[in-house]
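REVIEWER CHECKLIST
Item 1: Sequence provided? yes
Item 2: Single chain? yes
Item 3: Sequence as submitted:
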Amino acid sequence: MVLALVAARATPAGAGGKIEDNSFLIEEAYNQEAGVIQHIQTFQFLPRASSWAYSFTEEWPVPTDRHQLSVTLPLLGDGVSGGGLGDVLLNYRFQASGEGGDGMVAFAPRLSVVLPSGDFRAGRGRGGLGVQASFPLSVDLGRWFTTHFNVGATYTPRAKFAARDARDILDWSGGASIIWTPHGKFNVLVEGLYSAAEEIGASGGRTRAGSFTLNPGIRGALDFEAGELQVVPGASVPVVFSDAGTDVGALFYLSFEHRVWKE
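Item 4: Structure as written out by the authors:
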């Protein structure tokens, strides 16, 4: 399973201008500013598959927005195997170019270690230590629109499968989003994400399960504590197309961004 990291950044709380933590499934390319951390939560439910996924991500600048560390903790479940912890990600991201702003192109490659914390027998992990690379690119098109582009891959040497010995596998994903900002504190967005997960069958043959998710949604921002805290709730309707058919679900987003030290 390719893990989609929801890693977002907002403009400094209370600073005005348009919010920039404006994608759910597509990773933007803006690191957290110095002194500001963010706690991000998403919950997605797909009724046809009877599956759900909860994700908590916390981001820290170290110590400026040039470098960022984060951790992603997923909880996954379905109607067959129940629920439990998925594979945890430890992430480092480098702000190679851009820091947001009108007309700005930002690029922030990320490298992650994927810990084998999920139960591979229940489909919640790969059963082996992996590495993930992602290359998010963000383009600010001015007052009204922003776009984000992603391509990434996860390599797991000696991944485990219930019916086979450990094998090396490669998963990958790619996608894009477009964000409309009719108001500085409100976003309307549409995302598209394609994921391809490699599997090893009982006979030892390799297969690749692909899915495409179209995800329209909205998001707003609320500022509190004299601009030191920003709360961003959001919701979307993911439509997943795969070999198993089409599934229409619900996704809910909530982030808290606050300052913990002054520059």
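Item 5: Key structural point noted by reviewer: The chain is about 0% helix and 60% strand.
Item 6: Recommendation: ____
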